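for the writeup, i need someone to sanity check this before i put it in the appendix. the sequnce is what the collaborator sent (i think, or maybe the updated version? ugh). structure was predicted straight from it, no edits. if anything looks off just tell me and ill rerun, i have time this weekend
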Amino acid sequence: MTKPRCRNRRGFFIKGSGYGPLTITTVRTAKDEMRFIKFLWDIYRDDPNWVAPLIMDRKKLINRKKNPFYKHSDMELFLAERDGKIVGRIGAIVNHNHNRSMATRSDSSDF
């Protein structure tokens, strides 16, 4: 019996998908941030229409010290790994200015 293969939303097979425990880790180090950014290349490498973002721009986007967005917002990045390979990523973001102005407590994840 062969292992089932999972597809991403564009129909491409996800490398490393199948059986095995899924581990969720918080992105803490610069190495983890680079792994978070470069996971896009694994997802879209077989897509002829994909245009890779500039790594420098992705780094600026998630840099909590240099990006002014994080003066009023909180963010945590997470990586999902199975059998030592990244199989997913997500960013949890709370925009406190938006929540105050809209008198709501909504969260968003844009990654």
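Residues 47 and 54 are 17 Å apart (CA to CA). The longest strand covers residues 85-95.
thx in advance!!
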